[in-house]
Amino acid sequence: MDVQHWFAPAVARLRTANPYAVDSALAALVLFAVSLQWLFPDEGGDPLSWQGWLLGAGTAVPLVWRRRAPFATAWVVSAATPAMAVYHAPPPDVMYGGLVALYTVAARCLPWQRRLMLAGWLIGVSVVMQHKEHALPFEYAFHLLSLLCAYGFGSLARVQRAYTAALEDRARRLERERAADTARATAQERARIARDMHDILAHAVSLMVVQAEAGPVVVRSDPERAEAAFDAIAGAGRDAMGQLRRILGVLKDEQRDGSSGHRPQPGVAALPGLLRQVTESTGLRVELRTSGVPRPLPPDTEVAVYRVVQEALTNTVKHARASTATVELDWTGDELVLTVTDDGRGPAGEVGGHGLIGLRERAAACGGTAETGRGPDGGFRVVVRLPVATDRQAALG
User: Fold this and answer.
1) Are 286 and 272 in contact (CB under 8 A)?
2) Structural domain boundaries enclosing 338
3) Prediction pTM value
């Protein structure tokens, strides 16, 4: 275990070291190995000469450039090694430089360069040993297997480097995709919050404006009605502040497990209270009709139903000059059809204010559609179709 702890940091430092310094040290090590025959001249009967040592140096020194020009370096070493063997003063005991060069070619060169160099070394070593060395059979096996092992280790290094590069590229792509998803989710959440804030403020301000305009008219003739109008203004303001506080809590990263003290956003169940508030605050008579069997809705769709009705009634109060409005919930097998109609004067021109645009975006975000325009009997109509949750979605929700 201690050896492993020492070896791993050493390998990591070696990989991050200056490659030219590492290659120079490797070339010096190979040159030292080649020079061992001069350091121990009595170990064999082969003659020694400075010309032979220079040829041996020719198999080591070019390794300094093995990463910058691997194929050219391999050619130089490939020429110096058989020349040293043919000169025979002394012949190479082990092809140290050739093994390093073949490893480098296998790890860094193109496929045709790798194949050519491997075949050249195998054939060249066999021919030189046959005609010059008169080697024994085990020497053939030693030298040829050494070449194949060096080539195999180089191939493994190439595969490992490609695998590492692929993993790093994948990690970069995943990081970019994660950043893009985060930015997209943030933009969608901000758009949703903007729609909610528009719906809340537009609804509350419309009710407050209607009551504020009616208050001065009846303040002297009917004080109780004027007091009720001011109470309605205060109630609309308090309700708007409460809903805004719940929405802005999302921006503060508050927990949503109930510990924050805020109630969940309103949904279908809150529609009667909304309609009652509109009727009491503006005098607009609003009727709620339901047909079919209610089905579970996803949480976002629940909020969308409430906000669509809120926005539609806000437009009715602000623009339609209507006396009655109808909200219909038609539950079918796989969708909820929400229809809001009024008996007002209908659209005067282009139908496309910010509220209606947000209404369509809200429906689209829930996988539904929205249509707005003149009703069949006059007035204004909003029709929104929203998907109903499946039983599996309801169970998971």
Assistant:
1) no
2) 270-397
3) 0.50
